[in-house]
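FIELD: query
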Amino acid sequence: MNLNDCYNFEDFRKLAKRKLPAPIFHYIDGGADDEVTLSRNTEAFNDCDLIPNILNSVGEPDLSTTVFGRKIGMPLFLSPTAMQSLYNPEGDKASARAAEKFNTMYSMSTMASFTIEEVANVSSGPKLFQLYIHKDKSITDDLIERCSRANFDGMCITVDTLVAGNRERDHRTGFTTPPKFTLDSLLSFAMRPGWVFNYLTNKKFELANIKNKTDKGTNIAKSVMEYINEQYDPAMNWKDAEYCIKKWNKPMALKGVMSVEDAKRAIDIGCTAIMISNHGGRQLDGSRSPFDQVKAISDAVGDKLEIILDGGVRRGTHVLKALAAGATACSFGKAFLFSLGAGGQRGVEKLLENMHSEIRRNMILMGCKNVKDLDLSKIIYRK
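FIELD: result
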């Protein structure tokens, strides 16, 4: 099996599983507790059906939309995801270059493997930075200032990770940053010599954006759960978010909004967007899926906020359903991480090519000339 055999999410997942050691693969693949929410994120899209209109003289549909002040070529972009060099040595650089090729947005995590400046130097495409608020507020200020100097287009504050979710797969596999070779995981690493060679011969693993502030996660091996619980501020509040919005003074979203009340409050503190997200089912198991909430939030906030649906997207039809329910665009993480692990930049490009083709084809089949044609008249809920 190779990239040419990858037509969908499951194909990329299978190829990534062959190439990545078990602790690395399951860090991408897993969720919190019983992983009910992880499954529900995708299953929710099956609770409604698309309603096409015929003979609309669609021609070539316009897939573009605008998020964070940038026009992007399709209503789907890369979610911020941590430690991408664990999946491919080029990590964030590869993802950013692939996103630029398809004129869509790359999103950088606070816990990225390359620095803000390094990624800005390899891509002039649309860029979003995901901010975690640390207990050490100087880290937060430093990240905002560096993103401003590097001309990132937007920023999102992740608000659903005050403490780490209970990710039991990580407990079982012993996943840490940087990775540790233990007796339990040694066989899995040994069976993937290509990954081991790349890890040992390329740039040393580090949390590049914060390595000058803390050794934890770079020189001191920590589980992700330990790192989050030690470094992130569980007392973060609305005033902290408002402070960051004012300091940034460019398009800003809260990532992790799931309620109508919080969406309304995001408007009050100056947000231009929200990302409806449950952190890929990795935090609060048993919570609603983003798709379950998008219509209610859209009904409540109208055009006062850009609405990004983040979570569960596997198909172009999922994107169409989300937009019809009221989203401005969608973002996805697991899918592109599997494609990165399966084939580096070329893998991400292959995934984005697949998704662009699916969205384009299905918009034609729906009779939609542009994304604004996707509204509530185009879907019907089964319940």
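FIELD: remark
The chain has one domain: 3-381.
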